Recover the amino acids of this structure.
C-alpha cells in the first residue's frame, strides 16, 4: 500500500512538470519568469514589464539630408576606327570603284585615271605627257574629251577636267597614304597594257620617303597602263595614285604609288614646288645598285620602255580595226592572192609585188582609204620606234614589243 502511494505521487509530480514545461501556450511565460538567453516578446512602443522608464524622452535624431550624386554620362566604348567608313569586301570595293575609273588615251599611249568629283579626274603627269587634250574611256565604253588643267611632274600627278559633269558620276574618296599601315590590304585598279577594268590585290609593303616624296610601296602588280589609277584601302578610299613598278628583271613585287595627300594638295590649288627630278628617276637611283645613283640614261630608258609598250598597244588596236576592213575589201574588191607571209595580211599594201592580183573596177576609193589608214599606222610605228631608239631602248626590246602586238614588219626599218 505504501509503495502504491509513492508511485502515485511520482506520477502526479511528473504530470505537473510536463504540463509546466510543454502544456503552456507558446510564447508565454510564468509571471515574473525570465527565459534564459531570450527576451520576452514586447508589443511595439511598450517596455517590457519591470523595465524602468527613462528619465527623459530620447532626443530625435536628425537624419542628414541626402545629396544626390552627380549624374555621370557614360561614354560608350567603341572598337570602330575614327574613320566612320567600314571595311568592305574586295568584291564590294571593286563594284563601287570601277565606275569611277577611266582609261586615258593619248597619241603617245594609254594610262588610267579616276574621278574625284563629277567633272574632275586625277592621274599621273607622265600619262598625259605634254598633251593639253586627252580622251577618257569609261568602264561602259563611252568616251569623252577632257583638258589637262594642271600638272605637277615633281610628284608625277595631273588633274584633268571635263567640260561638264555627267549626272550621277561615281567618284572615289581620298583617304590617307602617309599613315598607311604595313600589311594592310590594298587593291590597284587600272588598264595594264590596255586591258581596262583590271584589278590586282596586295598589301602595303612600306611607306617610304624617296627624294622628299612619300611613296606607298605595295606588292600589288602595277604594270604599264596602270599608271594614274587608284590604290584603294579596305574602305574603298584612295590612299595612293599608282605610278610605277620595278621591272621584273630587277626585282619582283616592287610597285609604288604616290601618296594621295599630294593629289589633295593639287586639287586644293597648292602645287608642290618644282624639282629637277621625278619620283621615277629618284626611285630608280635608290633601287639600282643598292642606293648608288643610276645614270640618267637608265632612268630615261625605264620610262621610255613603258611608254613604247603603251604606244604599241594603242597602234595595235587600230591595226585590229584595219584587219576587219581588209577582210571586207578583199572579199568584195580584190581578185587574186597575197604573196608573202605577214603578221597582218594588209601589210601587203606596202609592197606592190605582194598584191599581183587586180582591184575590181569601182573599188579604187575603198582601196585608197585602206592604203591611207595603213600608211598612217606605218608612220606612227616608225615615229614611236625612233623615239624609243633615241631613248636608248635596246633593239631586242623594241622588236619584242612590236611582235607582242603583231606590228613586226621588216619594212619599218626601211
Amino acid at each position: 500500500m505504501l509503495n502504491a502511494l509513492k508511485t502515485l505521487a511520482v506520477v502526479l509530480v511528473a504530470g505537473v512538470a510536463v504540463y509546466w514545461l510543454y502544456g503552456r501556450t507558446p510564447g508565454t511565460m510564468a509571471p515574473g519568469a525570465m527565459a534564459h538567453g531570450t527576451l520576452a516578446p514586447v508589443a511595439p512602443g511598450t517596455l517590457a514589464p519591470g523595465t524602468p522608464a527613462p528619465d527623459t524622452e530620447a532626443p530625435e535624431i536628425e537624419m542628414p539630408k541626402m545629396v544626390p550624386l552627380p549624374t555621370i554620362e557614360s561614354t560608350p566604348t567603341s572598337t570602330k576606327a575614327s574613320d566612320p567608313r567600314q571595311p568592305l569586301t574586295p568584291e564590294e570595293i571593286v563594284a563601287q570603284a570601277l565606275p569611277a575609273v577611266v582609261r586615258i588615251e593619248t597619241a603617245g599611249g594609254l594610262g588610267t585615271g579616276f574621278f574625284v568629283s563629277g567633272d574632275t579626274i586625277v592621274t599621273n603627269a607622265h600619262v598625259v605627257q605634254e598633251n593639253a587634250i586627252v580622251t577618257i574611256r569609261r568602264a561602259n565604253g563611252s568616251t569623252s574629251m577632257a583638258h589637262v588643267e594642271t600638272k605637277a611632274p615633281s610628284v608625277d600627278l595631273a588633274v584633268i577636267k571635263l567640260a561638264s559633269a555627267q549626272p550621277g558620276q561615281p567618284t572615289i574618296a581620298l583617304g590617307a597614304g602617309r599613315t598607311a599601315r604595313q600589311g594592310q590590304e590594298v587593291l590597284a585598279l587600272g588598264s595594264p597594257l590596255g586591258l581596262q577594268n583590271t584589278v590586282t590585290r596586295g598589301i602595303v609593303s612600306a611607306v617610304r620617303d624617296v627624294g622628299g616624296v612619300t611613296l606607298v610601296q605595295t606588292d600589288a602588280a602595277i604594270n604599264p597602263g596602270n599608271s594614274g589609277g587608284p590604290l584603294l584601302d579596305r574602305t574603298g578610299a584612295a590612299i595612293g595614285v599608282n605610278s610605277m613598278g620595278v621591272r621584273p628583271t630587277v626585282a619582283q613585287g616592287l610597285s609604288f604609288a604616290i601618296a594621295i595627300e599630294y593629289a589633295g594638295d593639287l586639287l586644293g590649288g597648292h602645287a608642290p614646288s618644282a624639282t629637277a627630278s621625278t619620283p621615277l628617276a629618284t626611285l630608280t637611283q635608290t633601287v639600282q645598285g643598292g642606293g648608288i645613283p643610276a645614270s640618267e640614261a637608265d632612268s630615261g630608258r625605264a620610262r621610255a620602255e613603258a611608254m613604247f609598250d603603251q604606244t604599241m598597244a594603242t597602234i595595235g588596236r587600230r591595226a585590229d580595226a584595219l584587219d576587219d576592213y581588209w577582210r571586207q575589201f578583199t572579199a568584195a574588191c580584190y581578185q587574186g592572192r597575197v604573196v608573202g607571209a605577214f603578221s597582218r595580211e594588209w601589210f601587203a599594201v606596202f609592197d606592190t609585188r605582194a598584191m599581183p592580183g587586180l582591184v575590181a573596177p569601182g573599188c579604187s576609193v575603198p582601196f585608197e582609204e585602206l592604203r591611207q589608214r595603213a600608211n598612217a599606222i606605218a608612220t606612227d610605228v616608225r615615229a614611236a620606234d625612233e623615239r624609243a631608239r633615241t631613248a636608248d631602248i635596246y633593239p631586242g626590246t623594241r622588236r619584242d614589243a612590236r611582235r607582242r602586238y603583231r606590228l613586226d614588219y621588216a619594212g619599218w626599218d626601211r
Notes: Confidence is low (pLDDT under 50) at residues 16-83, 291-298.
